[in-house]
Amino acid sequence: MSPAEKPAPDAAMIRTKDLVKVHHSDGTDVHAIRGIDLLVHPGEFVAVMGPSGSGKSTVLHLLAGLVPATSGEIWLRGSRLSDLTEAERAVLRRRHIGVVFQFFNLISNMSVADNVELPALLAGANPKQARERREYLLEELGLSDRADASPARLSGGQQQRVALARALANEPSLLLADEPTGNLDSTNTRDVVRLLEQVHDQGQTILLVTHDARVASAADRVISLFDGMIVDDADVRPPSDNKNAIGSILDL
Amino acid sequence: MHATIRWIRADLRTRPGQAVLSVSVVAGVVTALILATTMLAGAMDPWKSVFARSHGAHVWIHARPGTNLSSLSDMSGVTGVSGPFQTAVATAVHEGQRAPLELRAMGSELPEVGRPVLAKGRWLDPARPDGVVLERTLARTLRAGVGDSLSVRGLDGRRYDLPVAGIADASDQGPYPSVTPGIAWVLPGVMNSIEPKTASTELLVGLKLSDPSASSFFVQHVVTVLGGDHVDRVSTWQQARASMETDSRLLGLLMGMFGVVALIAAALAIGNATGGRILSLLQDIALLKALGFTPAQIRRMLLLEQTCLGIAGVVAGSVLGSVLTDSSLSQRLFGSVTGVAAAPLSFGRLALIAIATLLAVVVATLLPAWRGSRVSPTSTVTAEPPSGRLSRFARVALLVRLPPALVLGARDAFTRRMRAAITVGGLAIPMVMVTIALGCWSTLDNFEDHPEQIGLAGALVAHPVGLIPYEASAVIAADKDVTAVYPEVQMDALLPGQTRTIQARALGTSKRPYPFPVQEGRMYAKPGEAVAGQGLLDLLQVHVGDRVRLTIGGAPVIVHIVGRTIEPSLSGEVLSFGMDTLDQAVRTTPSPSYRIVLRHGASVETARKRLLSESQDRLDIQAAQNPAQRLFVVRVVIFGLVIVLALICVANLLTAASVGLRDHMRDIVVLRAMGLTPRQVTTTLVSGTSVLALIAVIAGIGGGLAMSTRLIDLQGRTSGVGAGIGRAPSVLELVVAAVVALALAALMAFMLARKATNIDVREVSRF
């Protein structure tokens, strides 16, 4: 999505209304999310923070359409998720959403190159286009020489960078990242954050779940969750710095 | 589609072992099925092809000489006539083997209907007027080939040396020596010199019918037209067909059962392999879904991959199976049982096998694929192995202080119940089949070790040649290895209204009956009482205790059937009674032959040779035909199929063990961290698989035992031999089978566990 097509407010990237998620486990109900109303505009970089068990990851899974909500509604780019079938949600994901998890990001039986090319192929690109996009992304991330390696042979930081490349393969308008730096050392963390900032500068909407304040500081907006509810929602950039997407383009 | 193919390619590349396993399982099954069907098809229909090629007649009538047969060709329903040909009885001797012959006089031109099908050599030729053409099974028994000189003796004992001109198949009679006499064709001139007395000859005529199914009714009609006293013997195409089948029906049944069981076991093995594979891919599948694969795409992808592997297996199996069935070895093996060459499978049959196997693959993949497609995309991040609490069984095991590693392993075996059930089923079903196979094996052993239990107490049969009965029995009884001698007369008996002849056999006397193995009722004890084989009871639709009326040697006789015996010859269509019954019924009893019971453990061949020299060659002595000899190939088949089943079991065990291992990768690290020694970790993994194998072995052997004797008896009953032949496998055989299966299971698990205990902790904890 280019910033030039800046949508009207009702064309928000993400909008949720009274979102509730209850997990059933061992016969007891666990209220993971207790009514969240959220609005994310295109081009925003949002960090979701909170202690363990506050429902951060659940929010991300709900937004990606990976799990169904117990009640409440989610609109992604104007489509209501509960109206879509599982297959339609899958198609929505492959076209418009990139997802990065903390662990298990790569398909273990495919090489790094195959992992990065897969989303493009899935979205209907021909193998040549997919290969060109993969070569570009791996080049950008400094992983060109590892293209034929198996994921198991990569370090944690390399795996996360490949995951990021894979998530960006289709130039998704929304990037959802769940603790992408959770198991990385500070050098690797810095690399990943820098990448996210680059991507954001190109106009992509990012929603990042983290418990690391340094990572969150890269975002425009920080939402704090506690016990399944939003307790704080704050713009963290100084006004002069708090650029919208058009500003980013001008910066470039 | 590109994405799907990319994933399948990557998967096949990273797990070639699993792919090879899947392909080999399918290929093994297809090969086994092709072998089974080829043999089954050939074994089931040896008659059909010969009948078609011989333009066979449906009904054959042996009539007394001088009977006017011209009226037969005018009867309505007759579309063709073969003959009449003059026939005479004679004896052939070749390399010490004797065989009763029916000489058939035929011209140098083959008849239009009921023509012998020449297999080797040439047909009778006036240029070589003394030539003889032998029926194929007769030639095989005599070990006579084209060009050999066959010594033939007529009723008067004179000897003629006839060169064998050719070997042919006949569609009107079953294989020699199950059916006697053997058939030999000669020119009319030879016939006249061997049997100059027309009164001692018979006339043979074959009739082709417009409605073959009405042959029984038709025969009745013929007997009425010709007069009962003019008809000596009548046979129908149904009899000929049945007698050709008896040789190989057990084989066919076994092969069929093995084929079906192999298919079921293979479906389970494939299901297990696919299920295990998909289980190992759950995280990847979840991730694929998070990337945007739809459930339908996942299902299609898994199905496509397994179907491709299945097709590869089917192609490999078809090639292997075709090569094996075309090989000269299998042809020889097969030809030795049926006497007819097995035709290679038709394309239709081959396609049927391929499609059935491929369908089994698809069906076996459907459930795991469907379950795979339902994986939650977030299970990537929330993945946890299925938790199993300690079962009551495990708690008891801990209480009685079994080693903890053993208990842990036993518990692990059941954490995935569905898979445990599939594994147990996949092992238990082949074990059932192995037990049944062992039952067949010990039944055959029993045929050989205790021939008296199947009515073959008399290991030798002696026909006096120029010895009066009293002398003959005295010479035989004087031999040191002979414990008993029983006089025997075999005659054809015509069943009124039944339009068929059966064999009536006077053997032993009411006071001193031959040791028939009586399964139901009792032995005959006075004149007028008889025992019968199952085949005869079924044919006449009577039971033990009923009375039947039949015509023996022209005289009507009423016998009281007091018992059922095991009767391995002539499809069990044999009635046996004492010589005294025969003496009362007919005025002149034919001169008897003798059944000789040898001392237990005495060599049959040595005794035969000694008796021959003791009688100065005035006895013709043959060893009794034991069905175990012609069923020898069953053992070969059992052996081969047990190996196929074992391979399927191994495939199944490998999957079970590797799935168990994958489930416990992380556990292993924890267990090691907790302080379990590598050996204890190995024990945990091995006992997990072994517990399942133990359950399967017990269930399989139990099921097999429950079925095996019953199945063999059922087979015995339907083939006319009669129930009571089935023997359970010996305890030793079962123990060996169980130990081998368990050892195999433990070995598979051990090999994988050894690899597992050496894995790098870091590698596991990262995934």
UniProtKB/TrEMBL annotation, chain A:
Q: Which GO terms describe its molecular function?
A: ATP binding
Which PROSITE patterns does its entry note?
ABC_TRANSPORTER_1, ABC_TRANSPORTER_2
SUPFAM superfamilies (UniProt xref)? P-loop containing nucleoside triphosphate hydrolases (SSF52540)
Tell me where in this chain the ABC transporter domain is found: 14-252
Membrane spanning residue stretches:
none
Q: Keyword Lipid metabolism: yes or no? A: no
Q: Which domain of life is it from?
A: Bacteria
Q: Which UniProt keywords apply?
A: ATP-binding, Nucleotide-binding, Transport
Under the heading PANTHER family, the entry gives: ABC TRANSPORTER ABCH.1 (PTHR24220:SF86), IMPORT ATP-BINDING PROTEIN (PTHR24220)
Name the record gives this protein: ABC transporter ATP-binding protein
What organism does the record attribute this protein to?
Answer: Actinoallomurus oryzae
UniProtKB/TrEMBL annotation, chain B:
| Tree of life domain | Bacteria
Q: In which compartments does the protein localize?
A: Cell membrane
Keywords tagged on the record: Cell membrane, Membrane, Transmembrane, Transmembrane helix
Q: Which Pfam families match?
A: FtsX (PF02687), MacB_PCD (PF12704)
Q: How does it sit in the membrane?
A: Multi-pass membrane protein
Q: Which InterPro entries match?
A: ABC3_permease_C (IPR003838), Lipoprotein-release_system (IPR051447), MacB_PCD (IPR025857)
Segments passing through the bilayer: 20-43, 250-271, 309-329, 350-370, 420-444, 632-661, 682-707, 734-753
Q: Where is the ABC3 transporter permease C-terminal domain?
A: 257-377, 641-759
The reply on keyword Translocase is no
Domain annotation MacB-like periplasmic core: ranges? 21-171
Assigned protein family: Belongs to the ABC-4 integral membrane protein family. LolC/E subfamily.
Q: What is this protein called?
A: FtsX-like permease family protein
Which organism encodes this protein? Actinoallomurus oryzae
